[in-house]
Write a structure and sequence with these properties.
About 65% of the residues lie in helices and about 0% in strands. The chain has about 200 residues and is mainly α. The N and C termini lie far apart (about 60 Å).
Length: about 200
């Protein structure tokens, strides 16, 4: 199989994956900004793992395909999967109250566990597909050869990463994250942050 053709197909798949990660981060912002459900410490860590997952794929799109980028993405997916599983175990006892809204009957930490577990398999499959190529590291394609959606998706992902950093700072400043879910942005609120 032609290496350039393989790179183009891998690139399209990676762009679709980055678009999916953007959708998940936008969904998290919808619940945060529209429904007023501020992310807890676990939720913010899960968002970081989503950003790590997308960062490895983003590096492939910008600098050319490299197997170490898949390792970065798989690492983010593995940590995110373990954090989501830990969150599920923390909410499993009958006396605990689920955190956040449910989507189709499952809470977000359950969905992210499934997404991250699938992402680990995705990274492994992509690395195997890459390994079947003849060359070790591909060259990034020229800007003119890239589809128009390429820049848009990458721009949205970078903007969402920046927005998450700003959101986390407004929520906690340089202090630690509060357990049990916050009700206010600590940098914008002057009272007791744990009071509703």
């Amino acid at each position: 199989m032609n290496a350039q053709l393989t790179d183009n197909r891998l690139g399209q798949i990676e762009l679709a994956a980055i678009a999916g990660i953007c959708f998940l981060l936008l969904d998290a912002f919808f619940y945060q900004l529209v429904l007023g459900e501020l992310p807890c410490a676990f939720c913010n860590l899960i968002r970081v793992c989503l950003m790590l997952l997308g960062s490895g794929l983003l590096l492939n799109r910008v600098f050319g395909i490299n197997p170490w980028n898949y390792v970065l993405s798989a690492f983010g997916a593995l940590i995110g999967s373990l954090l989501s599983l830990l969150f599920m175990f923390a909410k499993a006892p009958a006396w605990t109250k689920p955190t956040g809204s449910a989507i189709f009957g499952l809470h977000m930490y359950t969905w992210t566990f499934m997404v991250f577990t699938a992402a680990i398999m995705f990274c492994l499959i992509m690395a195997v597909l890459y390994a079947r190529r003849d060359t070790q590291v591909s060259e990034p394609s020229s800007l003119a050869a890239r589809p128009k959606a390429h820049g848009l998706i990458i721009g949205v992902f970078v903007a969402l990463v920046a927005a998450n950093l700003v959101s986390a700072f407004l929520q906690n400043g340089f202090d630690h994250f509060m357990a049990g879910g916050q009700q206010h942005y600590r940098m914008l609120y002057d009272g007791d942050v744990m009071k509703p």
